[in-house]
Write a structure and sequence with these properties.
single chain, alpha+beta, two-stranded antiparallel ribbon, globular
Length: 509
């Protein structure tokens, strides 16, 4: 067995479970070339340096973290806030230094830890800025804290000879492969969706890029959306096994690179395509960077790995098991909700749902003072940036979060406890618009919860062959909704008491 490739024995008799366990343990802790791990450390560090620098130069820090009056946090993380003043610029500056440390392998463990914590902090501040690749970056940076990617070609290894090693345990490489493979596979599972397989919303987006040279006319074709949708779904589901199989590896790499380049051109999704293109090479033999750059292989003497004690092996396997089970099961939590995630957004985050929906939304918050009977419509732009408003209008939980913000804001300014009703008209993937939330409830008294929300109305509108194109300001002429006069009257219904909060309780997270 070479140190470049290891495998678990096949066809083990069922009665020999103990032997299988020992063989699999030996496989996970077998030595493999460190070259791929070092390559990924350098790739990840370089892309993160670029990301931090571009974020600082673009002015996004001010727009995303300093200017907003309020932030949409995740349930349980309301204590995470931006640093005051210019603190967020210092925050990204420290992240840039840490990313450089990862790139160079300098103070590597500390650098990886600082970057992981810094990235998690930025990620948790604002739900409106959720992106799957930001979530992936948080996970990968957290994994790097525990991976010995600094044992070769690093400042740390240059300064400390005791760290130097040309091999690592096989589990380190397979853990990265698993983490890179999960977005592909779960993204493919999410695309087994009726709308997606009929070419929506992808076909709508492709038609908007018909101005591109050479390919524009093809993108506008009636069946382009269906072809691209099915191709994307099949690629996501099959690319990992095709990369692992030697006979199809190069073909899978070429198709994957083309796929990500097309995404970069068509959808302008930042660093994600480049990170995934680079990470795809992790599925090649562990020693490929050494053979490609140095035109050499490891000698048997260099392939020796310090023995790992049984206690450390058991600890490593236990932690790996917990992490892997969480990553494999958590994306399926959407199955416990009654409404599809594309409609309600319940179970959408952290599940690798990518590019599955387009929502056009008409949204109003009707506020009424029960003491005087006076009411009106809240001016959302007083409190929200355009990015926050665009994202919130599509997400029922974020709408409820904003209701709680309005309730507490007016209460703090001596207005007492106000009634807040919501009119949310939503067109999903070109459907005729319909109400997404029950307009008859006082949402100031509704609690946030991880459980299915009973006030989210079911999606009933069928998918249309021709997307709905009626201007937003004319929707109420075509769809029956309560009038403004009705919406500022006392809420006619109450939600189940389980989801209620008392008027004096602070329900924000």
């Amino acid at each position: 067995m070479s140190i470049a490739e290891t495998h678990c024995p096949r066809d083990v008799p069922p009665a020999d479970a103990s032997s299988c366990n020992k063989d699999c343990r030996a496989w996970l802790f077998a030595p493999v070339d460190i070259a791929s791990l070092v390559y990924f450390r350098i790739l990840f560090g370089a892309i993160m340096v670029y990301h931090v620098v571009s974020t600082i130069k673009s002015g996004w820090i001010d727009q995303l973290y300093i200017r907003p009056v309020m932030h949409f946090t995740y349930p349980g993380f309301g204590w995470v806030h931006p640093w005051p003043g210019s603190g967020m610029y210092w925050h990204f500056g420290v992240m840039g230094v840490a990313a450089t440390g990862i790139l160079l392998g300098a103070f590597y463990r500390l650098s990886a830890l600082v970057f992981a914590v810094g990235m998690a902090h930025v990620f948790l501040i604002e739900k409106a800025f959720y992106l799957n690749h930001y979530y992936l970056i948080v996970l990968l940076s957290g994994l790097l804290v525990f991976l010995p990617a600094h044992h070769a070609l690093s400042v740390d290894a240059w300064l400390r000879s005791s760290l130097r090693s040309q091999v690592v345990s096989a589990w380190t490489l397979w853990l990265l492969r698993l983490q890179i493979g999960i977005p592909y596979f779960y993204g493919g599972l999410a695309k087994l969706d009726s709308d997606w397989l009929q070419g929506y919303p992808l076909g709508m987006w492709l038609k908007r890029r018909s101005d591109l040279p050479w390919v524009g006319a093809s993108l506008a074709h009636e069946y382009a959306g269906i072809a691209f949708a099915w191709g994307g779904m099949l690629l996501d589901l099959l690319i990992v096994p095709l990369l692992l199989w030697k006979r199809t590896r190069w073909t899978a790499l070429a198709v994957g690179v083309l796929f990500h380049l097309m995404n970069s051109v068509l959808f302008e999704i930042g660093i994600f395509p480049w990170l995934m293109i680079g990470a795809t090479l992790l599925f090649f033999p562990p020693d490929w960077p050494r053979r490609f750059v140095l035109r050499s292989r490891l000698t048997p003497e260099a392939g020796l790995l310090q023995p790992v004690s049984p206690f450390r092996q058991n600890m490593t396997l236990g932690l790996l098991g917990v992490y892997v089970v969480w990553q494999l099961l958590f994306p399926f939590r959407g199955l416990f909700y009654t409404q599809p995630a594309t409609w309600s957004e319940e179970g959408h985050h952290f599940a690798w749902h990518m590019m599955l929906r387009e929502k056009d939304v008409g949204l109003r918050f009707y506020i009424r003072d029960p003491r005087t009977g006076e009411g009106g419509v809240a001016d959302l732009r007083t409190f929200l940036t355009s990015r926050q408003l665009s994202r919130m209008s599509k997400d029922s939980d974020m709408i409820l979060t904003f209701v709680h913000f309005l309730r507490d804001h007016f209460r703090a300014h001596g207005k007492g406890t106000l009634q807040i009703r919501v009119l949310a008209l939503v067109s999903l993937n070109g459907r005729r618009p319909q109400l997404m939330m029950d307009p008859d409830l006082d949402y100031a008294r509704v609690e946030r919860t991880w459980f299915p929300q009973p006030w989210i109305l079911p999606l009933t509108e069928p998918l249309r062959r021709e997307p709905w194109t009626v201007p937003l300001e004319e929707w109420e002429q075509h769809v029956f909704v309560p009038s403004p006069e009705e919406m500022i009257q006392p809420a006619p219904r109450q939600v189940d008491p389980f989801f209620l909060v008392t008027p004096t309780e602070d329900a924000t997270f």
